Amino acid sequence: MKKVFSLVVSVCLLLVQYGNAFAQDIPTGKFLGSYYNGQNFDSLVFTREDQLINFNWWQGSPGGGVNNNNFSVRWQGKIEFTAGNWEFGCMPDDGLRIYIDGEKMVDSWKVQHGTYFKFVKNLSAGTHLIVVEYFEDKEWAGITLTWKKVTPATTPSVGGPTTKPGTIAPTTSPLYKGLYVSSCEELAVNPSEGDAPLEVNFSGAGYDPYGAIQTYSFNFGDNSPIVAQEDSYTSHIYQKPGKYNALLTIKDSKGNLRTSDTCKKVITVTGTYEESVGGYAEPTVYPATVSSLPKTGIFDTSLSLILFTIPMAILGLLLNRKFSKF
Fold it and tell me: Is a pLDDT exceeding 50 seen at residue 283?
């Protein structure tokens, strides 16, 4: 009996110890992020408070002890909202689930690249619990979450059965039509400046309410060929200094081409450039020499000078003997 009692006490102490270590209150106005190794919250590594969910880890790790690939994160935050309709946008790479006050708003727990999600939620005034679950498979990793308050657009119409002739009554357009139109949502670059030759990583995202983005087309702005591909990530090396306007264009599931101001970035490349067979070359260093008069073209070498001087000396002696008899 004593052994059983001792075991129960030990287990309780262990639970209290780990509960104190890992249990943290969900913050207000920011997120508590719990970071795990494994795609299904397998092994908790650490927790921390994140002001926003706005990360692009590229091919790196979110923090010490977390894998570069094959990890997952759960964010929980109490966020204050005013009453009304709120549009949420999220771009994960890869898996995503979003809950608001326990209601599942997005469930896309799969490998995906450059996919952007939007939805509208009517919220009452006050604090609401937002939970975001995310996993990374391999290669690039990142996730962003944004929200903004929206209202239905209205356009005036003249006349109509419920208005007097000549008066203007508002007509509500389709609710939040932006949810029904594809768009280019993001172009991220890393780094955005540096010395040439500069290798830059590009990450794009597009929104398509009816299917998947067909093509991501990257125009690097340096007259190199446009890269059009299914993958939303690529890299490019800028060889010459200058400022380059990079542009992303997406083709949606219906074949429409979309771009936007958020899909434009300026790349600043510094340094010097010299034309050579390989492009870049180290400055040529010439050894110091003693300055001399310009070459005439006739006595450019010592050998030519000798061959000219000896015959002229012999001719001078002969002429001197001949004319000395007179």
Answer: no
